[in-house]
Amino acid sequence: MVAELFKCFSLQSLYFFLADGISFAHFSIASVCIITMVLYYTTRVPCVYLFDFNCYRPPDHLRAGLASFIEYLEISDIFDRESIDFQVKMLKRAAVGNESCLPPPLHEIPCNGSLSGARQEVEEVLFTAVNDLLSKHKIDPKSIDILVSNCSIFCPTPSITAMVINKFGFRSDIKSFNLSGMGCSAGILSISLVKDLLKVHKNSLALVLSTEATTPSNYEGKNKSMLVTNTLFRMGGVAILLSNRKQDRWMAKYKLQHIVRTHMGSDDQSYNSVFQQTDEDGQKGVSLSRDLLHVAAKALRINISELGPLVLPYSEQLRYGWSVVRKRIWFAEKKEIYLPNFKKAFEHICIHAGGRAVIDGVEDSLRLQKEDVEASRMTLYRFGNTSASSIWYELCYLEAKGRVRKGDRVWQIALGSGFKTNSAVWKCISDLDPKERNAWSDRIHRYPVNIPSVMEH
The whole model's pTM is what? Predict the structure, then answer.
């Protein structure tokens, strides 16, 4: 298109323009305007809109409350006394409440950790989430152009995306991608992938599915670093509908502004901090190292150092820059480097609900207030650690509370194995109805609740 434009403005064309009495200055201005418009429309990056999302809400009969969880440990005859006592101790301090749920295979005695059990869990979560989302907006499954799923532990053949395509009858030319092994930060990775795909595929609808199968990740050994996951992870998932179509601008909830990804895999300590392996008895599980919080803090610092210049007001950037210069030039050892106030860049922050210690760590690192992490703590309490989908349950909580308003900016922080820290920044572009049904709407009036440091059963 640009080449054709230049063909029109040959020297011969210039002669005719001047002959008609048009000044060279006017001609130059018109040429610059036309070329600028052409370059703008041919090089601009299309907007990515979050049309809507739907979090899976497990039925109440799948609850794994503290008392029932302890009873299961006692009568299942799987663990020795020391392992039972350790899990009970961890569960009482995990800040995971009695409404969190486990899939049917993990309620069986003995636990059914089979391939069919894992498939049953994923089908229940994702099929329900997708069906509710598409039905809500009367979207024909055949109108979906891109499908991306992420599930770290469970990677079957056919893939999870193939399971969804078969269930809903998506088109044969759909572009599908199945991510595995990417941990709790994989949800934002999926959004990042879709963002890049939408640059190439114009006028498209994309569906992102985030979940984690707890059935195959249940650990039945004695290693304490691997037993911790039994007390944290619970079933959950989300279906997210993204679009770059202009007509969806007026119906979408959010607009994607930034994605910043940090991968610490080149560092051995980070790489080994969350690791799937077999113990000395051959039992498979996921080990969480003692260095995990230190690794997460380091990755978060690097991530926000890249995100800060994109989102912080200049006043905060200048204060940070001056504190760094002062410390390096004048060796002001007693003066700390200024930590920017990210609340000046965002109205809402959704921290991955990886555990009480993870939320506490991010809260302290960013010097946040109690209300800033309320959504994260309540999500952990009600739904447990649902892996990559936890940040969406938190946004769901904020919507149900009526706190997200048009123009608000939302920062999602995801932490996961590798070790990875990923940030996504959204801007609300619609007036949201807090009465709209979602995963929290049935009992949002009960929250927030006071979470004791040690729970009793």
Answer: 0.89
117: its two tokens: 């059990």
Answer yes or no: 107 catalytic: no
Per-residue pLDDT tens over the stretch 174-211: 999 999 999 999 999 999 999 999 999 999 999 999 99
| CA pair distance 99, 259, nearest whole angstrom | 32
216's CB contacts (< 8 A; 6+ apart) are 113, 115, 117, 118, 153, 154
Instruction: From the candidates 218, 244, 348, 350, give the one annotated as an active-site residue.
Output: 348
Residue 58, judged by CB atoms within 10 A of its CB (0-12, 13-18, 19+), counts as: buried
Q: Measure the CA–CA gap between 313 and 242, rounded to whole angstroms.
A: 28
pLDDT digit string, tens, across residues 124-178: 999 999 999 999 999 999 999 999 999 999 999 999 999 999 999 999 999 999 9
Q: Catalytic one among 55, 184, 396, 428? A: 184
For residue 257, report the phi and psi dihedrals to the nearest 5 degrees. Answer: -110, -45
DSSP state letter for 185: G
